[in-house]
Amino acid sequence: AHPIFYDAANATVVLSDVGVSLEDNAWIQQETTSMGAAGNFLTYQRPGLAAGDAVSFSLAGEPEQRAVVDANGNSAVVRDDTVELLLGGLALMVVVVAGLFLVRSWLETADSTTPDAEDAQIYLQAVANLDDAYAAGQIDSEKYTQQRAELLAELVPIWPVS
User: Fold this and answer.
1) Residues 94-114: what's their mean pLDDT?
2) For residue 144, is pLDDT > 80?
3) Domain residue extents for the chain
4) Could you give the CA distance from residue 68 to residue 80 in angstroms, rounded to a whole number?
5) If we measure between CA atoms, which residue out of 26, 18, 19, 82 comes closest to residue 54?
6) Distance in angstroms (rounded) separating the CA atoms of residues 12 and 30
């Protein structure tokens, strides 16, 4: 029931004509309305509602399954097949599992290719060893400059930023 807080000349209920009707005697059935492809509609009115009255009604009958049509009038098949639902659920599960597998493998690949602090330490130690060899006179200036530039070019992109 829905309370009415003001006086109303009437209340109207519109139902699709699919085998269900109102069984309350307070409601008066009006002429059936045709809405083209949308089908027929039943209209019920209840006159003279005072403030404080409640609008309520009871439905009678079983809804019938009707052909569903699109905007062009083509009938669409209404299906409720358990096998189709199970196949759809299985397909959804396969897609989710495949997605999880791809994300997991992508994360593992990203982790294995990301240089860590140990890689930076290796390059840093190589630069220090090269500096020591140059300071001791074991390597000439041209070779030292070339090798140091190569090592620093490898070290700079993986150097941890804090």
Assistant:
1) 83
2) yes
3) 2-76, 117-158
4) 14
5) 26
6) 10
